[in-house]
Write a structure and sequence with these properties.
This protein has 414 residues and is of the alpha/beta class. The protein is built from 15 helices and 17 strands. The structure holds ligand C6P. Ligand C6P binds next to helix 5.
Amino acid sequence: MTIAQSAPAPLDVDAIRQEFPILHQDVRGKPLVYLDNAATTQKPLAVIDRLTEYYTTINANVHRGVHTLSQKATDAFESAREAVRSYLNAADDREVIFVRGTSEAINLVAHGYGRSRLEPGDEIIISAMEHHSNIVPWQMVCEETGAKLRVIPMTDSGELLLEEYARLLTPRTRLVSVVYVSNSLGTVNPVREITAMAHQAGALVMLDGAQAVQHLPVDVQELGCDFFAFSGHKLYGPTGIGVLWGRQEALEEMAPYQGGGEMIRTVTFEKTTYNDLPHRFEAGTPDIAGVVALEAALEWVSAVGLDRIAAHEADLVEYATTSLSFNRRVQLIGEAKERSSVVSFVMEAAHPHDIGTILDSEGIAVRTGHHCTQPVMDRLGIAATARASFAVYNTRDEVDALVSGVNKVAEVLG
Ligand code: C6P
């Protein structure tokens, strides 16, 4: 097969943009250029309509009623669980736990696994480029149990040092939790290798997929990990809904995280017995509308095609990287060989906050700050970066607008 034959067909980005009403507005008198997609993506009409349809036709509580609406809501809810199973190629839909987002998914594992399995002297390994959501829950659980946190170091260009990781793995290692795609550097980590090495040492593996599922096809069985977390709102879905996938045996070993309705089988004042998977980890009324609309988001992404999305975004990242490099005051942060959809940079004599403010005056939305990865900033000796992050609806014209905006920053700040 030639390269031309195997390359995915290009996207009709104009048509895609028509599906995102929010993009068609002016901000500060200029057409909105939304480049803050790693924080949250905008939502297509298919997702917005599904939310409206849910609330206007079948809204009721799930798993609780014999009445028709409750049954329809339950069917829609469980249909979304099956859609997530299929999206991740999980073996069984009981392995799909609905949570609020990646942060809650990691907290669930840290506390559920930590409380039932960790002992003083046990070790958890994370990496130097974790989001705070994949640091703080482990620190909390280490404090409670006497386990120790170990950190895989990284290079200046933002790549994990696997030989150091190999040295950190010991018979005391219980769990390795690593980000698949870094939100502040864009690095795509070699998670298959990381997982295989952890398993050889007898440790479980959790992957933070918050910045992966919207850019790369994810097959949890092929990755071989034990837990995988993602947020719906970074995948063109609603805020407030996310997923923890866990291998059935790994989930079975965990203590429940929160108590309440739905997660129980029987309750007396003397003793409670717990429900089966997945309900054991879903206490209380879930975000039913969010779950139902998440299915619409997965359908939408699958219809566009992750291979075409990835190819389009790779073009934008390369174009942005090259174009920004012409400005000698720009220094790119994060230059790993494998990267995805994030371009982080600093500028000589310009604080990232000022870069963000001046870009906003041009209608351009980027994120500035430490991106909830303070240890990454400390490691690189910087306080913050400006970050442009891309989605399927972004265009080369928008990259041109970003580059003009950055040139204006250089002019204004002298
Ligand atoms: N990163 C960003 O602008 P929640 O907030 O639970 O949906 O996701 C947390 C999270 C976990 N891991 C990674 C790699 C992430 O990027 C995020 C969220 C956003 O980069 C908000 S800080």
